[in-house]
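Incident review: delayed structure delivery

Summary: a single-chain prediction request sat in the queue longer than the usual turnaround. Root cause was a stuck worker, restarted by the on-call engineer. No data loss occurred. The affected request and its eventual output are reproduced below so the record is complete for anyone auditing the incident later.

Affected input:
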Amino acid sequence: MKFQIAVMTALYVVAPVMGADPALLQYVPADSKSVAGVYADRVISSPMGVFLQSQGLTDNPELQKFISATGFDPKRDLREIIVASSDPQGHKNGLVIARGQFDIAQIGALASMKGSSKESYEGVDVYTGTRSGTKAFAFPEPTIALIGDSTIVKAAIDNRRQAGVLDQRLSGKIQAASSRYDLWFASTGPQKIALGRAFNSQDAVDVVSGGLTLGSVVQLNAEAVMRTEKDAQGLLGVIKLFSGLAQLQQQKNPEIARLAAILNTAETKVEGTTVLFSISAPQSDLELLFRGPPRTAAVHQ
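Output delivered after worker restart:
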């Protein structure tokens, strides 16, 4: 189980991706409702990536053990990650698809030593953790890794012969978002946005997509394609309502002033049935936000 966790940590540690690599997208299950991606090498070398590493946020003991045992360092060897799920919110078990430089023999040997079982499926070695039950990983190509439940991994391997056909709404947003952002996402189906009684999005949202651009200014862009123009106007009204509440909260709680200053840059507009949202902040302001308020020295009597 620890080995499986180390593998997952190694792939996720650089992420909470030009257009997404078609060689990776072919492994995305046809029933996927949400797909997200990270250009790992871009994120790691970005100002935000450098800052987070300086804060020790990537110093994970299990990861360090994994690097020592396999020679695979995600900060150096990982290029791109795509995560797909059949759940619109991405909560259900999904598939992780990664592009990088892997010592497959060394990783496989370590997995076997840790108790993982190995079976050949369509000519590909699939390693399944005996303690983790169904969690598995495989390398269908020398520079591509798959991680997920064994049934999902095997189904993805089948896609080498014939890739699954995604919902056209989803595939179009994947292409648009992945060609624009360093971190991107696209999801279709009910989103269950938690806005209370003010807005019921269960059947109102058709597709949501967007992403983050990292640089001296960090920019978040998102769009929600609604079922009707009325739904779009409804969502716009709720966003404005929450923005107004944030302004009131700023007056009552000075500690969130920095966050409120960032929220003040948000722009929202409606074009037909589409709600467009954007917000940006200088990298330096985000660093201050992550560090939190400065500590004051204790006064001793």
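Verification: Confidence is low (pLDDT under 50) at residues 1-5, 7-17, 296-301.
Action items: add queue-age alerting; document worker restart procedure.
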